[in-house]
Structures are given as structure tokens and as C-alpha cells.
Amino acid sequence: MDRLPKKNMTAKIIALICAIILWIFVMNEQNPPVEINMEIPLEVRNLSSTVVAVDVPDSVRIRVRGPRTIIAGLAKQDIKTYVDLKGLSEGVNTAKVHTTIPTSIEVVEVSPDPITFHLDSIVSRQVPVEVKLSGAPPADIIVDKITYSSQNVVVVGPKGLLETAAKAVAYVDVAGKSEDFTLGVPLKLLDHNGKGVGEGLQMKPNSMYVSLFFVPSVVKKTVDIKPNMTGQLAKDVALKQILTNPNKIEVSGSRQIIDKIDAVYTEPISLDGIDKDVEVEGKLQVREGVTYSRNTIKVNITVIKQQ
Description:
It is rod-shaped, with a radius of gyration of 45 Å. It folds into three domains: 31-113, RNA Polymerase Alpha Subunit, Chain A, domain 2; 122-216, YbbR-like domain (RNA Polymerase Alpha Subunit, Chain A, domain 2), CATH 2.170.120.40; 219-305, RNA Polymerase Alpha Subunit, Chain A, domain 2 (Beta Complex). It is mainly beta. The protein has helices spanning 3-30, 68-72, 159-162, 255-258, and strands spanning 33-45, 51-54, 59-67, 80-84, 91-95, 98-100, 106-111, 115-134, 141-148, 152-158, 165-173, 181-191, 202-204, 207-216, 219-230, 237-245, 248-253, 263-270, 278-283, 290-292, 296-305. It contains four helices and 21 strands. The strands form four sheets. Strands 2, 5, 8, 9, 10, 11, 12, 13 and 14 form a nine-stranded mixed β-sheet that branches. It has a five-stranded mixed β-sheet with strand order 6-4-1-3-7. Strands 18-15-17-20 form a four-stranded mixed β-sheet.
């Protein structure tokens, strides 16, 4: 009587083992394990606020294995990858890539792992602002003056990258413009070679107001004519007066030149030997960049006899 239960127990154990083996066989046949490669964003955790991680990849390639039905429904958001930068100092560092995955699957490979990167201190400094114009106003208009809201901006970022920043440039298009205007313009950070500095730096402010003032490219002005007299009158006469006809003249040219002109002088006119009233022709002195409304004038010389 006692031997029968033991016999039944042995048979039951054997049957259970066979059932498990059969289940595993069926599951492997119906839902076999498969592998898949996925590109997963890489998180940076526990990074100090005083440093920035440079050259950390945005993502890593991960290979996972699991039952086909689970792998088929697997999404990128189901997997997390990250590096823990707690306690690391400035300079070159290496960190292991950690993963968080659903149950029933396993990580076969992560690449790259570990990763090598650089921790750089965050610093700030000022760089000058420059305005660059593109296009051209109408032919009879020029830009007279440019003003902008700030001469410098503060740039913040990794020390190594910040050293490449040379200036902040505001680009303004003046094509066809002829009236004064003020415009909010974004700033672009350039290096010492005039090329854009990559991401990783912040400007404060990152835009500014630029005001442009236009004037005619040719301006006109009326000024006095002054005769340039040389030599000596005859011995028995004295000079009474010298008058020019006209006594004023219109000059034209760029504002920078015309603003400096208060009078126009004639070429030298000789008084040698004059003993009576005369009218002579006087040529105006030529000045580069200046146009006169006429090139010659009349000069009336009046004398009186000496007793």
C-alpha cells in the first residue's frame, strides 16, 4: 500500500517535467526569441550647473533580444539610456551607458559604450557688436549714420567654445531703402575667421534695434566767392574795392565734402600794372569731388589815383 503513492508521485514529476519541456518547445516554435537594433536617445543625468558636457552623442545604438511578440510591440520610448555624470570633474571623462528596459527582454549590445567626452566650465565674456549692410539704396541716396542699441553683448557657454567667438553681427538689408527706419535684428555670432560659431553658446541679448539714417548722395550748398589776388598795382594808384560777379555760387557733392566748404576761391588774379578800373575773368579753383554751377566769374577791380 505504501509503495503505490511513491510510484504515482514519480510519475507525476516525470509528467510535469515533460510538460515543461513541451511548453518550452511549443513556445520557442510559436514565439521564438528575436533580436532587434534600435537608435535610442541618450540622456545626461546629474550634470553640475557649472559645467557643460561636450561631445556626448545624442543617441546610442542598442541591440535587444526577447520573445517575438514582445519585440514586435517594442517602441523607442520603452527603452531609456543614460550616462550618470555625478562627481565628474572638468576635462576628459569616460562614463558607462546605463539602460532601463522592459521585463522579458535583455540587452545584447550598446554602442558606443562606454563614451568619452569632455566636461568644460561655463564662463561668460563680452564681444563687440557690428552691423553689416546688404543690398544698396537708390543711386541718389546713401546711408549717413547707423546707430544700435548696444555696443557689446554677453556670451555664455563652455570656455573652450567661447574662446572662438569674436563678434556678434546684425545683418540689415538696405536694398531700395531711402527713408530712415529702425528695425529689430537677430544677432549672429561669428568666429575670428568670420564663420558662424556652432551651437552651445548663448548671447544676452540675442537681438538688437538698429536705426539707419539716409541722406541724398549729392547735396547742394550756396557759398561766397572770394577772389585770390596777387601782385602790386601801378605806383600812382591805390585799390578801392574788388567785387565778384556773382558774389555767391552753388556747389554740390557728397555731404562729407560739402559740409566742410564755407567759400570758393578763384585761381590767382594778378594786380601787376593795373592803373585803372578793370573787369577780368577769374577761374574758380578746382576741388576734387565738388561741382560748381559755373567755372568762371567776373572780377571788377576799382582803383583810385593817388595825389
